[in-house]
Amino acid sequence: MSTLESEINALWDRYDDGLTATEATADDLATLDAFLDALEAGEVRAAEKTGSDVTSWEANAWVKEGILLNFSLRENEPREYGGVSYNDVLPLRRTDDLAARGTRNTPDGTAIRRGAYLGEDCIMMSPSFVNIGAYVGDGTLVDSCDTVGSCAQLGKSVKLGANTLIGGVLEPVEGAPVIVEDGVSLGAGCRVTSGFKIGENAIVGENTLLTPRIPVYDLVENEVIYGHLPSERRAFTRFVESSVSDHELFEGGAYKPAVVATDVEAETLEATQQEDALRE
Question: Residue 266 maps to which CATH number?
Fold first, then answer.
Protein backbone atom coordinates (compact mmCIF):
# COMPACT_ATOMS: atom_id res chain seq x y z
CA MET A 1 0.00 0.00 0.00
CA SER A 2 1.40 3.39 -1.03
CA THR A 3 1.76 6.32 1.34
CA LEU A 4 -0.89 8.24 -0.60
CA GLU A 5 -3.33 5.34 -0.38
CA SER A 6 -2.75 5.11 3.38
CA GLU A 7 -3.34 8.84 3.80
CA ILE A 8 -6.56 8.73 1.78
CA ASN A 9 -7.79 5.71 3.77
CA ALA A 10 -7.08 7.50 7.04
CA LEU A 11 -8.84 10.63 5.82
CA TRP A 12 -11.83 8.56 4.72
CA ASP A 13 -12.07 7.00 8.18
CA ARG A 14 -12.11 10.47 9.75
CA TYR A 15 -14.78 11.55 7.26
CA ASP A 16 -16.85 8.50 8.26
CA ASP A 17 -16.48 9.66 11.86
CA GLY A 18 -17.93 13.07 11.00
CA LEU A 19 -15.09 15.22 9.60
CA THR A 20 -16.53 18.18 7.63
CA ALA A 21 -15.18 20.69 5.14
CA THR A 22 -15.06 23.40 7.80
CA GLU A 23 -12.94 21.14 10.03
CA ALA A 24 -10.52 19.95 7.34
CA THR A 25 -6.97 21.16 7.99
CA ALA A 26 -4.36 22.53 5.62
CA ASP A 27 -2.60 19.15 5.79
CA ASP A 28 -5.84 17.39 4.83
CA LEU A 29 -6.26 19.64 1.79
CA ALA A 30 -2.60 19.11 0.88
CA THR A 31 -3.25 15.34 0.85
CA LEU A 32 -6.25 15.89 -1.44
CA ASP A 33 -4.17 18.11 -3.74
CA ALA A 34 -1.42 15.45 -3.94
CA PHE A 35 -4.09 12.89 -4.78
CA LEU A 36 -5.42 15.04 -7.64
CA ASP A 37 -1.86 15.52 -8.92
CA ALA A 38 -1.39 11.74 -8.97
CA LEU A 39 -4.61 11.30 -10.95
CA GLU A 40 -3.56 13.94 -13.47
CA ALA A 41 -0.16 12.27 -13.88
CA GLY A 42 -1.79 8.89 -14.50
CA GLU A 43 -0.04 7.44 -11.45
CA VAL A 44 -3.30 6.24 -9.88
CA ARG A 45 -6.50 5.21 -11.64
CA ALA A 46 -10.09 4.68 -10.60
CA ALA A 47 -10.09 1.14 -12.03
CA GLU A 48 -7.63 -1.47 -13.23
CA LYS A 49 -7.76 -4.57 -15.40
CA THR A 50 -7.06 -7.71 -13.40
CA GLY A 51 -7.24 -10.30 -16.20
CA SER A 52 -7.24 -10.66 -19.97
CA ASP A 53 -10.97 -10.14 -20.58
CA VAL A 54 -12.87 -6.85 -20.61
CA THR A 55 -15.05 -8.16 -17.78
CA SER A 56 -12.03 -8.30 -15.44
CA TRP A 57 -11.91 -4.53 -14.79
CA GLU A 58 -12.37 -3.69 -11.11
CA ALA A 59 -12.77 -0.39 -9.29
CA ASN A 60 -10.02 0.93 -7.03
CA ALA A 61 -12.25 1.79 -4.09
CA TRP A 62 -9.65 3.93 -2.32
CA VAL A 63 -9.23 6.09 -5.45
CA LYS A 64 -12.98 6.66 -5.67
CA GLU A 65 -12.98 7.48 -1.95
CA GLY A 66 -10.29 10.08 -2.61
CA ILE A 67 -12.42 11.63 -5.34
CA LEU A 68 -15.47 11.76 -3.09
CA LEU A 69 -13.39 13.36 -0.32
CA ASN A 70 -12.48 16.16 -2.72
CA PHE A 71 -16.17 17.02 -2.88
CA SER A 72 -16.97 16.43 0.79
CA LEU A 73 -14.00 18.22 2.42
CA ARG A 74 -13.81 21.33 0.21
CA GLU A 75 -15.92 24.45 0.36
CA ASN A 76 -17.91 25.62 -2.64
CA GLU A 77 -16.51 28.97 -3.75
CA PRO A 78 -16.47 31.44 -6.65
CA ARG A 79 -13.71 30.72 -9.16
CA GLU A 80 -12.44 32.06 -12.44
CA TYR A 81 -10.58 30.36 -15.25
CA GLY A 82 -9.89 31.68 -18.73
CA GLY A 83 -12.05 34.72 -18.07
CA VAL A 84 -15.06 32.57 -17.10
CA SER A 85 -16.55 32.82 -13.60
CA TYR A 86 -18.15 29.79 -11.96
CA ASN A 87 -18.85 28.25 -8.54
CA ASP A 88 -17.50 24.83 -7.56
CA VAL A 89 -15.59 22.93 -4.90
CA LEU A 90 -12.85 22.15 -7.44
CA PRO A 91 -10.93 24.30 -9.90
CA LEU A 92 -10.52 23.29 -13.51
CA ARG A 93 -7.38 21.41 -14.44
CA ARG A 94 -4.38 23.40 -15.64
CA THR A 95 -3.40 22.46 -19.17
CA ASP A 96 0.23 23.66 -19.20
CA ASP A 97 1.48 20.07 -19.45
CA LEU A 98 -0.59 19.07 -22.48
CA ALA A 99 1.51 20.70 -25.20
CA ALA A 100 4.66 18.84 -24.13
CA ARG A 101 2.87 15.51 -24.64
CA GLY A 102 1.39 16.54 -28.00
CA THR A 103 -2.19 16.79 -26.75
CA ARG A 104 -4.51 19.48 -28.11
CA ASN A 105 -7.64 21.09 -26.67
CA THR A 106 -9.25 23.51 -29.09
CA PRO A 107 -10.85 26.83 -28.10
CA ASP A 108 -13.38 27.80 -26.99
CA GLY A 109 -15.16 25.46 -24.61
CA THR A 110 -13.00 22.46 -23.72
CA ALA A 111 -13.29 22.00 -19.97
CA ILE A 112 -11.12 19.55 -18.00
CA ARG A 113 -11.78 19.20 -14.31
CA ARG A 114 -8.98 18.67 -11.80
CA GLY A 115 -8.05 15.03 -11.35
CA ALA A 116 -8.50 14.06 -15.01
CA TYR A 117 -5.70 12.44 -17.02
CA LEU A 118 -5.05 13.02 -20.72
CA GLY A 119 -2.32 11.00 -22.40
CA GLU A 120 -0.05 11.80 -25.33
CA ASP A 121 -1.36 12.96 -28.71
CA CYS A 122 -4.98 13.27 -27.57
CA ILE A 123 -7.41 15.65 -29.24
CA MET A 124 -10.24 17.46 -27.43
CA MET A 125 -12.57 19.36 -29.74
CA SER A 126 -14.85 22.08 -28.45
CA PRO A 127 -17.16 21.99 -26.75
CA SER A 128 -16.30 18.93 -24.66
CA PHE A 129 -15.87 18.04 -21.01
CA VAL A 130 -13.68 15.56 -19.12
CA ASN A 131 -14.58 15.02 -15.47
CA ILE A 132 -12.55 14.19 -12.36
CA GLY A 133 -11.03 10.71 -12.22
CA ALA A 134 -11.40 10.12 -15.96
CA TYR A 135 -8.47 8.56 -17.83
CA VAL A 136 -8.07 9.36 -21.54
CA GLY A 137 -5.43 7.18 -23.20
CA ASP A 138 -2.81 8.13 -25.79
CA GLY A 139 -4.07 9.15 -29.21
CA THR A 140 -7.74 9.28 -28.21
CA LEU A 141 -10.16 11.71 -29.87
CA VAL A 142 -12.84 13.43 -27.77
CA ASP A 143 -15.01 15.13 -30.37
CA SER A 144 -17.38 18.10 -30.23
CA CYS A 145 -20.22 17.94 -27.68
CA ASP A 146 -18.71 14.88 -25.96
CA THR A 147 -18.72 14.25 -22.22
CA VAL A 148 -16.31 11.87 -20.48
CA GLY A 149 -17.80 11.25 -17.05
CA SER A 150 -16.16 10.84 -13.66
CA CYS A 151 -13.79 7.85 -13.37
CA ALA A 152 -14.44 6.66 -16.96
CA GLN A 153 -11.43 4.81 -18.38
CA LEU A 154 -10.68 5.28 -22.08
CA GLY A 155 -7.87 3.31 -23.67
CA LYS A 156 -5.42 4.22 -26.42
CA SER A 157 -6.54 5.33 -29.89
CA VAL A 158 -10.22 5.50 -28.95
CA LYS A 159 -12.49 7.55 -31.20
CA LEU A 160 -15.56 9.20 -29.68
CA GLY A 161 -17.95 10.50 -32.33
CA ALA A 162 -19.57 13.89 -31.86
CA ASN A 163 -22.28 14.21 -29.21
CA THR A 164 -21.22 11.05 -27.38
CA LEU A 165 -21.78 10.54 -23.66
CA ILE A 166 -19.46 8.40 -21.57
CA GLY A 167 -21.24 8.24 -18.25
CA GLY A 168 -19.64 8.71 -14.85
CA VAL A 169 -19.76 6.33 -11.89
CA LEU A 170 -18.77 7.67 -8.46
CA GLU A 171 -21.04 5.72 -6.17
CA PRO A 172 -20.92 3.09 -4.85
CA VAL A 173 -17.16 3.25 -4.39
CA GLU A 174 -16.80 -0.43 -5.32
CA GLY A 175 -18.75 0.07 -8.55
CA ALA A 176 -16.58 -0.15 -11.68
CA PRO A 177 -16.77 2.84 -14.02
CA VAL A 178 -17.43 2.83 -17.76
CA ILE A 179 -14.57 1.13 -19.59
CA VAL A 180 -13.70 1.75 -23.26
CA GLU A 181 -10.63 -0.27 -24.21
CA ASP A 182 -7.93 0.39 -26.82
CA GLY A 183 -8.91 0.98 -30.41
CA VAL A 184 -12.67 1.32 -29.85
CA SER A 185 -14.66 3.55 -32.22
CA LEU A 186 -18.00 5.00 -31.09
CA GLY A 187 -20.26 6.59 -33.71
CA ALA A 188 -21.88 9.97 -33.20
CA GLY A 189 -24.55 10.16 -30.54
CA CYS A 190 -23.62 7.01 -28.60
CA ARG A 191 -24.39 6.69 -24.91
CA VAL A 192 -22.33 4.40 -22.65
CA THR A 193 -23.49 4.41 -19.04
CA SER A 194 -23.66 2.66 -15.65
CA GLY A 195 -20.32 0.88 -15.76
CA PHE A 196 -20.75 -0.76 -19.18
CA LYS A 197 -17.49 -2.18 -20.60
CA ILE A 198 -16.42 -2.20 -24.27
CA GLY A 199 -13.67 -4.56 -25.38
CA GLU A 200 -10.69 -3.72 -27.59
CA ASN A 201 -11.20 -2.68 -31.22
CA ALA A 202 -15.00 -2.82 -31.06
CA ILE A 203 -16.89 -0.55 -33.48
CA VAL A 204 -20.23 0.85 -32.32
CA GLY A 205 -22.76 2.38 -34.71
CA GLU A 206 -24.27 5.83 -34.34
CA ASN A 207 -26.83 6.53 -31.60
CA THR A 208 -26.31 3.19 -29.84
CA LEU A 209 -27.15 3.01 -26.14
CA LEU A 210 -24.90 0.68 -24.14
CA THR A 211 -25.98 0.09 -20.56
CA PRO A 212 -26.11 -3.04 -18.36
CA ARG A 213 -29.91 -3.13 -18.56
CA ILE A 214 -29.97 -3.58 -22.34
CA PRO A 215 -29.18 -7.05 -23.75
CA VAL A 216 -26.35 -7.59 -26.22
CA TYR A 217 -27.16 -10.30 -28.77
CA ASP A 218 -23.70 -11.60 -29.62
CA LEU A 219 -24.06 -13.38 -32.95
CA VAL A 220 -20.41 -14.45 -32.87
CA GLU A 221 -20.75 -16.64 -29.76
CA ASN A 222 -24.53 -17.06 -30.19
CA GLU A 223 -25.38 -15.82 -26.70
CA VAL A 224 -27.13 -12.97 -24.93
CA ILE A 225 -24.92 -10.98 -22.57
CA TYR A 226 -25.33 -7.98 -20.31
CA GLY A 227 -22.95 -5.29 -19.12
CA HIS A 228 -20.22 -5.61 -21.73
CA LEU A 229 -19.42 -5.78 -25.42
CA PRO A 230 -16.68 -8.29 -26.29
CA SER A 231 -13.57 -7.30 -28.23
CA GLU A 232 -13.53 -7.19 -32.02
CA ARG A 233 -17.28 -6.68 -32.41
CA ARG A 234 -19.38 -4.41 -34.60
CA ALA A 235 -22.44 -3.33 -32.62
CA PHE A 236 -25.64 -1.51 -33.54
CA THR A 237 -29.13 -0.96 -32.15
CA ARG A 238 -32.14 -3.08 -33.03
CA PHE A 239 -35.55 -3.37 -31.40
CA VAL A 240 -36.99 -6.62 -30.03
CA GLU A 241 -40.46 -7.47 -28.81
CA SER A 242 -41.11 -6.45 -25.21
CA SER A 243 -42.72 -8.66 -22.57
CA VAL A 244 -45.49 -6.04 -22.23
CA SER A 245 -46.31 -6.14 -25.96
CA ASP A 246 -49.74 -7.64 -25.33
CA HIS A 247 -50.80 -4.93 -22.87
CA GLU A 248 -54.02 -3.12 -23.70
CA LEU A 249 -52.23 0.25 -23.62
CA PHE A 250 -49.86 -0.85 -26.40
CA GLU A 251 -51.99 -1.28 -29.45
CA GLY A 252 -49.95 -3.02 -32.13
CA GLY A 253 -47.34 -4.27 -29.65
CA ALA A 254 -44.42 -2.76 -27.76
CA TYR A 255 -40.71 -3.04 -28.44
CA LYS A 256 -37.54 -2.40 -26.45
CA PRO A 257 -34.00 -1.54 -27.57
CA ALA A 258 -31.32 -4.19 -27.85
CA VAL A 259 -27.79 -4.33 -29.23
CA VAL A 260 -26.69 -6.74 -31.94
CA ALA A 261 -22.99 -7.63 -32.11
CA THR A 262 -21.30 -9.24 -35.12
CA ASP A 263 -17.76 -9.76 -36.38
CA VAL A 264 -15.91 -6.64 -37.47
CA GLU A 265 -15.68 -6.59 -41.27
CA ALA A 266 -12.68 -5.30 -43.22
CA GLU A 267 -14.78 -2.55 -44.81
CA THR A 268 -15.86 -1.34 -41.37
CA LEU A 269 -12.26 -1.24 -40.17
CA GLU A 270 -11.24 0.87 -43.17
CA ALA A 271 -14.11 3.31 -42.56
CA THR A 272 -13.08 3.88 -38.94
CA GLN A 273 -9.30 3.97 -39.43
CA GLN A 274 -7.65 6.94 -37.76
CA GLU A 275 -5.42 9.25 -39.73
CA ASP A 276 -1.94 9.46 -38.23
CA ALA A 277 -1.52 12.91 -39.78
CA LEU A 278 -4.01 14.30 -37.25
CA ARG A 279 -1.72 13.24 -34.39
CA GLU A 280 1.74 14.08 -35.76
Answer: 2.160.10.10
